[in-house]
Amino acid sequence: MYDLIIIGGGPSGSQAGRCAGKEGLKTLLIEKDRFPRSKPCGGALSEKARSYLDFELPPEICEKEIFGARLRFRDQIIEGSRDFRLATMITRRSFDNYLLEKAAETGIEIQTGERVTDFEEREDHVEVHTKAETFRSRFLIVSEGAQGKLKHRIRKRDRSKEYGICLVADIEEDNEKIDDFLPGILEIHFGLIHMGYGWIFPHDGYYSVGIGSFARKWPETKRLMSDFLEKNGFTGKYRVRGHLIPAGGIRRKNVGRRVILTGDAAGFVDPFSGEGIAYAVRSGQIAGAVVAEIAAKGKALSTLKDYEKICENEFERNLRYALVTAKLTHRFSNLIYRVMRNNTESFDKFLEIQTLKRHYLSYLRWLIPRIPKYFLINNRR
Question: Does the domain made of 160-246 have the CATH classification 1.20.1050.10?
Answer without folding.
Answer: no
